[in-house]
Amino acid sequence: MPPASRHEQQAAIPLAEAKNHLSALIARVERGEEIAITRRGVPVVRLVPTVACGDAEFERGRQVSEALARLRQLREGLALEGNLRAIAREGLD
């Protein structure tokens, strides 16, 4: 499966929620996440970091955000059955 594009990974937040949680959203953007703000389900604005592209800390945060988004995608629909310790040991063999 090819990696998701940047637009597929960004969070979508309704405008009313964005107004109530702006500080938290800005903190997420500072860590490299991009957030779309929607009005009636339609994206109207994107919050993106303004840090220079060459900034190593920004790049690291972006990579972590992308990795976590990929892990969330992989986890969707995954159901583990049985004893988790046994499953973990099986993975080591």
Please describe the structure with a list of short key phrases separated by commas or semicolons.
5 helices; three-stranded mixed β-sheet; YefM-like fold; 52% helix
Main sheet specs: 3 strands, mixed
* Overall geometric form: elongated
Q: State the low-pLDDT regions, or none.
A: 1-8
Describe the strand arrangement of the main beta sheet, using strand numbers: 1-2-3
Number of domains: 1
What fraction of residues sit in β-strands?
15-25%
Give me the strand/helix succession. HEHHEEHH
Q: Ends: how far apart? A: 26 Å
> What's the total count of β strands?
3
CATH topology: YefM-like fold
Average per-residue pLDDT, rounded, comes to: 80
Task: Write out the CATH superfamily name.
Answer: YefM-like domain
Helix percentage = 40-55%
CATH class: Alpha Beta
